[in-house]
Amino acid sequence: MKTDRTAPRRLDDPACGHGVGGDAVVPVGSGTGTRALVARVLMEQGPVTAAVVAAELELTEAAVRRHLDALIADGEAEVRAPARSARPRGRGRPAREYLLTDTGRVRFGHGYDDLATQALRFLAETAGEEAVDAFARHRVRELLGSDLDAVTAPAEPAERVEALARVLSARGYAAQARHGGFGVQLCQHHCPVAHVATEFPELCEAETRAFAELLGTHVQRLATIARGDAACTTHVPLEDPELLARARGKKQGRSVTVSGRPTARVRQVQEEGGSADGGTLSHHGPRKGGSPYDDHS
């Protein structure tokens, strides 16, 4: 059973064109600017008026209203009609009151990640690592759901990658397919389970294996948000003769098996730690192969 699940942090992702210096500071989710301070007052005291926020932060009401308008425009705050009071009010309209929306509360984090991590930790301790792997595979099936056919329908491999990117984007992963070099890179710019996957890379490994099965070829996970990269990047080699032959066979309405030698690029990928039988290359560990970016020490 594993005893240390803490993964090292990486702050660069050359695969998807992101990169920050080694001394860069990763910002906290709540932010540190004036707008974040305004949002915090709304969270702690809301619904409140702009005057109350201004007094709390020692700002002018005009400055506070600018930030409130921006939060409303981003869907992070809303206006609520003030509660009726038995005490008589002065002339003029009652002051508007502001409070955070559910979207606005996200910037301050929540306990869902901690709860999910604790649940998986308990599962690993009571039922073993196999149970965690089984859950990870089940999660991927639930994630793709009824859209599996939409991914496997295109005949061309590159079109399948693009279809997969559309499905993932619809699930909140902000994915896109980037063509270049010897294949296509599937870039996921957001991962809803990144914090949990930091301790449980089985989630990433199951996802990578599912991608390989859907696309009909081995894939190489180059980077993951869970390990500190700017995006989850999966390389899909398109010059694999097995993959191209399958695409041609599908266009002709027949099943094709290829026994030819792999191309130079495929041999290189396999020599770097891949599988000769079309397995996956995982960024997270030796369980299903390895990546040149991995640290297995």
From TrEMBL:
Chain segments carrying region Disordered:
246-297
Q: Which Gene3D superfamilies does this UniProt record tie to the protein?
A: Winged helix-like DNA-binding domain superfamily/Winged helix DNA-binding domain
What the entry lists under PANTHER family is as follows:
HTH-TYPE TRANSCRIPTIONAL REGULATOR SRLR-RELATED (PTHR30363), TRANSCRIPTIONAL REGULATORY PROTEIN-RELATED (PTHR30363:SF28)
UniProt-recorded name of the protein: ArsR family transcriptional regulator
State the organism named in the record. Pseudonocardia alni
